[in-house]
Amino acid sequence: MRNTAKLTTAVLAAGALTLGLTACGSDKDSDSGSGSGKNGPLIVAASPVPHAEILTYVKDNLAKDAGLDLQVKEFTDYVLPNTATEDGSVGANYFQNQPYLDDFNKKNGTHIVPVVTVHLEPLGLYSSKVKKADELKSGATVAVPNDTVNEARALKLLDANGIITLKDGAGNDATPKDIAKNPKNLKFKELEAAQTPRSLEDVDAAVINGNYAIESDLKPADDALVLESADDNPYGNFLAVKEGNEDDPRVKKLAKLLTSPEVKKFIEDKYAGSVIASF
């Protein structure tokens, strides 16, 4: 987060969610989620959509035959799944991409590593006020995620579609300060990623992560004004664990199931292009 207000909001949200999870969980769950309880269930932290839905499909249809006791614990932010994986409260997580994880590990001193890439959720620009991106008026306000990687990703999306032009060399930490050309004089409102769908009534457009778009009944393949390309996209979402737990037999079983033909068909049938299998 880049300012005190954002940090305070994140801390309060994290505290509230942690209390809720503590009330619902137990010491037994925590032990079985960690690398030390490899004979117990594998607890996986996941965003509700599509990650938890995909995991629930695996749990209900594939896990038993593979000899895997799988439990799914939903988180609604992009911080707690990694901290819970680091401290062993859960055995794995499934919600993030490589640029985000690299940034998170660097800033937080965590040791989370990817296991297998499962799917891509294309980032999209949405609006309840215009039907085409070129209809955005001069001075329009566009909401973007406020975490480093997803804000840069949002700006790259706008750049790729000719809405803005980024400076040469703008990378995975690009901010509005890295915009070289802004012909519509767009204003950018930085929000926690989960809040971007709710902002649509208050801003002219919003760049929304695929999982939050789907949760909000948006259909990325149909509703986005512009949508991220899947070609050579570095933002595939993967199963991740704390370093050292990659060879946990439960993790290996889950990795195999998540990249099975059955899961690929489930993704294609349920999400119809709004989520794309990466295997």
UniProtKB/TrEMBL annotation:
Coiled coil start-end: none
Entry annotated with the keyword Repeat: no
Domain of life: Bacteria
Subcellular location: Membrane
UniProt entry keywords in alphabetical sequence: Lipoprotein, Membrane, Palmitate, Signal
GO cellular component annotations of the record: membrane
Lipid-anchored residues (S-diacylglycerol cysteine): C24
Family, per entry: Belongs to the nlpA lipoprotein family.
Protein name (database record): Lipoprotein
Organism: Streptomyces apricus
